[in-house]
Predict the structure of Methionine aminopeptidase.
Amino acid sequence: MMVKTQEEIRIIAEGGKLLGAILEDVVSRIREEVTGHELAEFAARRMQEAGGKPAFVGYGTPPYPAALCVSLNNCVVHGIPSDYAFQPGDIISLDIGMIYQGLYTDMARTVSLEPITQRERELIDTASQALDVGISEIRPGNTTGDIGYAIQQYVEGKGFGVVRDLAGHGVGHALHEKPEITNFGTRRSGTKLKTGMVLAVEPMITLGDWHVRIARDGWSVMTADGSKAAHAEDTIVVTDSGYEILTR
């Protein structure tokens, strides 16, 4: 069901608040010589301590192997954590999902290790701002197309690319549910939003061309032209008056 009950929303909100705090803790550990593998192990421990469990482990085909996606530089999303030690100039996108009392939440943030260029800083900021722009379109009667249109106009207005091959989604009973929420499109198109829907909105943007390719590991989504990328995501519930962000 795309529309969740009040009790389900309460649980998702509780899990979302916990997940937001966990990702803040993960981000605070980022520094030179730390590895993605270390961050993923820390994230898994924190989720277990919070009474949840990682949503990503074992997901998909081939089964995803970690509690956290760590996507570096020209990797847009779904990067597999490794023993690579972070270096100055790295752009690091972290995507995390948790199952809490049987229900799912999902979120992502992009950070960096200085020095990065001014344009790279703008890339990261634009992903975060585009998330807020998209979320601001959430209210009963609006559509998923309204969200995508707003994100696309904002991102392309800043001169960045909007990845077309990946999308946001419903979330709750599973990690990925209907409706699909693309980051591009036209107003009044797609699925009409209703009170009680729980959505994961997630702009994925590039410094260059928007086309992507899948790496040999079967998971990492890379920019086709090698340009750097950024990603931001929150879980949001549609309310009678608009929306509530559940992962902040």
